[in-house]
Amino acid sequence: MIMIVWCDRCGRALDEGPHSACAAARELEPPRYCGQCRRRMKVQVLPAGWRATCVEHGDLTPTSS
Amino acid sequence: MPESVLARAERVLETGVGLDEAGVLEVLRLPDDQIPAILELAHQVRMRWCGPEVEVEGIVSLKTGGCPEDCHFCSQSGLFTSPVRAVWLDIPALVEAARQTAATGATEFCIVAAVRGPDARLMAQLAEGVKAIREAVDINIAASIGMLTKEQVDELVALGVHRYNHNLETSRSYFPHVVTTHSWEERWDTLRMVRESGMEVCCGGILGLGESVEQRAEFAIQLQELDPHEVPLNFLNPRPGTPLSDQPVLDPKDALRAIAAFRLALPRTILRYAGGREITLGDLGTRDGLLGGVNAVIVGNYLTTLGRKPDEDLALLEELKMPVKALSATL
Ligand code: SF4
Ligand SMILES: [Zn+2]
Ligand SMILES: [Zn+2]
Asked: Which stretches are transmembrane (chain B) (predicted)?
């Protein structure tokens, strides 16, 4: 099972909330941190989407996140 | 009594000659209740001197992040603690991005790289990318890869890049507060070479960097002096980790005043909504700007942030009865 414990926008622990501002910002931003390990991801924004890659946990896309 | 700014704006409509700095400043200082009137005039100026078409563009980042420069608004500078990491786009994905852009009806596709200026690797990647796009997709290709040498300008012309974007970002007097690793004049030099090469010049900036209204007017007039083919107007979207992360977002009324002022300074220029309109103006303000002088949009996502869905923008243009400029009309 995948455990998401880090905020993918600010990189802080989800239970150290609130992250409502992060969630709102994420409407117009791709994720930057891996939710599983907090590593900064390599993120490519594309005209019609984005692709984020964690060196440890692999690829993330708008539909998979 | 001195002539009112609305009367002077009427003269812009008649003559197609932009407002001077004092006039631009007056527009930027108009009271709230006069904003609708000045937007209406700016819209008429746009319709008269540019026409009803809207130019649609998509952009993509060929090389993201890790930039050695320190533009204080930019999440792609390697000098700040921004979460944006360096990444390169491969050629098949670049061609796919161009294809997605063309599918929206866009006529412009701008390839952008976060660099001070291109090195041999970037020039080679760009050359390969432009060639691959030209073979597969019917779209005008623009580029934005920083400060150029004369040789690099010539290379871009030879590649068939038809427009070059290089933003002055802000007024000459405010620039040193925003960027310390290079000068406004260095940017101007690149623009001069691009102009002389015959490529179309695309040059704009970001409003809401902390500049004064006087400096905003100064910037509009400096753009007027440059006389670019296109001016992209960004509104600061404060990015985490950058020196401007806590800068407040521009007041939407000031953004609308600026749209009218820039249109009245630049009656014949393509005035494009670029980044930050979503958070600064929202849907309602976006519409007001399109009815207040703006005649071009970036559709889809930006370089490191996301935009509205292209369908939403295209539906809005249809509702406003503004036809999307066709490719044949741009060649
Ligand atoms: S040169 Fe461009 S990419 Fe680099 S920090 Fe400045 S705005 Fe960002
Ligand atoms: Zn958060
Ligand atoms: Zn991870």
From this structure: none
Q: Decide if B1 is inside a domain.
A: no
As for how many domains chain B has, the answer is: 1
B283 inside 8 A of chain A by CB: no
Kind and range of the H or E run holding B56: strand B55-64
Specify the ligand 1 atom closest to the Cα of B70.
5
By the 8 A CB rule, do B183 and B151 touch? Answer: no
pLDDT bin (cut points 50, 70, 90) of residue A65 is: low
Burial of A36: CB neighbours in 10 Å, binned 0-12, 13-18, 19+: middle
Residue B148: name the closest of B192, B179, B180, B178 by CA. Answer: B192
Total domains present in chain A: 1
Does B3 fall in a domain?
A: no
pLDDT of residue A51: 96
Mind listing the pLDDT tens digit for each residue in B113-131?
A: 999 999 999 999 999 999 9
pLDDT at position B41 over 80 = yes
Compare CB distances from B97 to A33, A40, A47 and report the shortest one's residue. A47
**Domain holding B187: CATH number?**
3.20.20.70
At B269-291, the pLDDT tens digits run 999 999 999 999 998 899 999 99
Tokens of residue A27, six digits:
């409407």
Q: Is residue B47 part of a domain?
A: yes
Find chain B residues with C-beta within 8 A of A43's C-beta: 64, 84-85, 87, 304
pLDDT at B308: 92
Q: Give the integer Cα–Cα distance in Å for B111 and B97.
A: 10
pLDDT band at B268 (very low <50, low <70, confident <90, very high): very high
Domain that holds residue A36: 1-65
SS3 B297: strand
The whole domain housing B280 covers: 8-320
CA dihedral B121→B305→B160→B189, nearest 10 degrees, is -80
Residue B109 has a CB neighbour count (10 Å cut-off) of 25
Q: What is the pLDDT of residue B2?
A: 63
* Separation CA A30–CA B262 (nearest Å): 31
Please check whether residue B295 lies inside any domain of the structure. yes
Q: State the Cα–Cα distance between residues B38 and B296, nearest whole angstrom.
A: 19
Q: Count of CB atoms within 10 A of residue B25's CB?
A: 19
